[in-house]
Amino acid sequence: MKALHFGAGNIGLGFIGKILSESNFNIIFSDINQDVIDTINDSKHYFVRTVSKDQDSIFDVKGISAINSSDPKIIKIMTLVDLITTAVGPSALDKIASLICNGIILKFNIQSIKPLNIIACENKIKASSVLKKNVLDKLPEKYHMYVNKYIGFVDCSIDTIIPSSVINKKKSSLFIIAEDFQEWIVNCNQFKGEVPIITNMNLSNNLDPFIVRKLFTLNTGHAIAAYLGWIKKYKTIHEAILDEKIRFIVKSAMQESGNFLIKHYNFNSNDHFSYIEKIFCRFENPFLSDNLLRIARNPLQKLRREERLVEPLLGCIKYGLSYFNLAKGIASAFCYYNENDLESIKISSLIKNQGIKKTLLDICGLSINSKESHLIVSEYNSILKTHS
Predict the structure, then answer these.
(1) pLDDT at 388
(2) What was the pLDDT predicted at 52?
């Protein structure tokens, strides 16, 4: 079996690449970083060190190659592989959709009836379905029947922490540190042809609860820890989570989000709060200390109404639950400014030009005169006053 994976970053190498290699796939990585492409092609393997509190192990990912995403040869490659996966970030899916369109057109023209399954492994609800919509919007209608018959867009939930990857340029090698906890759940009803046998990939008929549980727990807590940690000039999640005030807010926000999930999805409360405790232990693991800049990046996406910060808050409002710490997390995200992050620059510019209340409306869809907006604005001003 052959797979093409877009995004040779931490998740792509330390999670998707490792699992596919364990499942005996030949993997072709695609990325825009030519240094990574060259390193993969020079060494044809890399090491993943999986760590937990008690033990660690080394896995050698072998028999791999790489191609730059801008290389025209990638279109033909898409006609030869059985599986395409992505870990590029939700904002880059539109560009991937354009490439996939060209691959589908070539498959159609050569009359290929070989099924192709595509799994977008992104921190976004039903990312593969979003990708499919982008593809169909770009493709002429005459290709739509072919897509629906032979191209599977498989939604999934992934849950893991991959804090670092290192390129050793002298030895032309890659070394990844990854969490030993790696969960990959897919919608078994969306595959075309035979479902591939992939190590540790779990099939589900009801994926939605798994997606929102992870996004509105791990990603919610991760983001809030990053923004609060940035304000206090910490460098890593581990440093931030050791701060007692940040620790309390992050855990409380995850519990507030949990109360909403328990109400909305009828989760078992004991099981869900146990899940929160497990995630918190993962945050505390010094071997998995992630860089705050990596977690905080792209705040505009993270502050959208349907995303990890605002959606849990709106859910709490719907069920009459407390959301005080979620509001603190949202306020801290609006305080994030990084001159190397275009989205943070845009948010700062919006606040400067029209004020925080109107910006909350434009980005989060929160009414200017609502109780939650007043609370977020109050917390935002308090942060600025304390840390200016």
Answers:
(1) 66
(2) 76
Amino acid at 368: I
pLDDT, position 343:
96
Reported pTM: 0.83
Give me the residue spans of the domains in the chain: 2-205, 209-387
* pLDDT (0 to 100) of residue 168: 64
| The domain defined by 209-387 carries CATH number 2.60.40.10 | no
| ∠ Cα 246 252 253 (to 5°) | 90
The CATH T-level fold of domain 2-205 is: Rossmann fold (3.40.50)
The pLDDT value given to residue 47: 93
Q: What is the pLDDT of residues 75-102, one digit of tens each?
A: 999 999 999 999 999 989 999 999 999 9
- pLDDT (tens digit per residue) in 319-333: 999 999 999 999 999
Distance (Å, whole) CA 92 – CA 73: 20
**Other CB atoms within 10 Å distance of the CB of residue 63:** 11
Name residue 187's beta-bridge partners. 204
Q: For residues 351 and 383, is the Cβ–Cβ distance under 8 A? A: no
Give the number of other CB atoms < 10 A from CB of residue 345: 14
Which amino acid belongs to residue 127?
A
Which residues in the chain come in under a pLDDT of 50? Answer: none
pLDDT value of residue 257: 98
Any bridge partners for residue 186, and if so which? Answer: 156, 203
CA distance linking residue 345 with residue 246, whole number of Å: 24
